[in-house]
Specification:
- This protein is an alpha/beta fold.
- The protein has two domains: 178 residues, NAD(P)-binding Rossmann-like Domain (Rossmann fold, 3-Layer(aba) Sandwich); 85 residues, N-(1-d-carboxylethyl)-l-norvaline Dehydrogenase, domain 2 (Orthogonal Bundle), CATH 1.10.1040.
- The protein is 47% helix and 14% strand.
- It is built from eleven helices and eight strands.
- The radius of gyration is 19 Å and the shape is globular.
Length: 281
């Protein structure tokens, strides 16, 4: 299978890594040449880590890298059997990419989005192939995490769902089929929990360490909700809460004022060096 991945960020380079490692020719596309260079360097570094752990042979690492091409033009997706958009959570940005890919790809190609919250149905409606549009929501870090949320839009062809479920399983992932409602399953459950943890912190119910410790030791979560929010990015958490609130019009999805304030201050978590915890030391 020939695959095109649009977006050289954390999710995009992880998706490229996994497809190439499992024998697929992949073209990574990003308008920023620097982003492509960083993505390729990250993939090489992560493959080296697998080799050192004994999870991958040196020859397989080299073969994986040879299967990866890079380009700064969406026209490079021509000829792909599957194109996966993995840019940031902006409907307008994704819409523009989907419109262009719809022009470039062959009629039988499948168009997927790695979106964590934006409607697959809305994205599909921007194309002339709504039956061949689907969601493939990988988890971060992609080479490690087993889950792929496979989201069918209103018009997604059942044969396309079956194909993507099989492709995901071939990547040694565990695909789970879900329907296209705000937040799907993962973020509809996870983000309100994170938001409630933020609300507990704002109200002084407990300090950050106590809140995270309760969830780690009491609920067997590997990471507390506030630490996890920092890892995800508080801006991403806020965007998803807004999608849930707008989609359901239910007050239980209203973002915590503290979350809103921290994003406004630019305290977005690990990526900015400061969130609920300090990462600058």
């Amino acid at each position: 299978m020939k695959v095109a991945v649009i977006g050289g960020g954390t999710m995009g380079n992880g998706i490229v890594h996994v497809f190439a490692q499992h024998g697929h020719d992949v073209t990574l596309i990003d308008l920023d040449r620097g982003a492509l260079d960083r993505a390729l360097a990250t993939i090489a570094k992560n493959l080296d880590r697998q080799v050192k752990k004994g999870a991958l042979a040196e020859a397989d690492k080299d073969a994986t890298l040879r299967r990866i091409a890079a380009a700064t033009d969406l026209n490079a997706a021509a000829g792909a059997d599957l194109a996966i958009e993995a840019v940031f959570e902006s409907f307008e940005v994704k819409r523009a990419i989907f419109v262009k890919l719809d022009e470039v790809l062959g009629p039988e190609a499948i168009l997927a989005s790695n979106t964590s919250s934006i409607s697959i149905t809305k994205l599909a409606a921007c194309t002339g192939r709504p039956g061949r549009v689907i969601g493939m929501h990988f988890m971060n870090p992609v080479p490690v995490m087993k889950l792929v949320e496979v989201i069918s839009g209103q018009a997604t062809d059942p044969a396309v769902l079956a194909r993507i479920m099989a492709v995901s399983a071939d990547l040694e992932k565990t695909p789970v089929a879900v329907q296209d409602y705000p937040g799907f399953v993962s973020n509809r459950v996870l983000m309100p929990m994170i938001n409630e943890a933020v609300q507990c912190l704002m109200e002084g119910v407990a300090d950050r360490e106590a809140i995270d410790t309760v969830m780690k030791l009491g609920m067997a979560h590997p990471m507390g909700p506030l630490q996890l929010a920092d890892f995800i990015g508080l801006d991403v958490c806020l965007d998803i809460m807004n999608v849930l609130y707008d989609g359901f019009k239910d007050g239980k999805y209203r973002p915590s004022p503290l979350l809103v304030r921290m994003v406004a201050a630019g305290h977005l978590g690990r990526k900015t060096g400061r969130g609920f915890y300090d990462y600058q030391a």
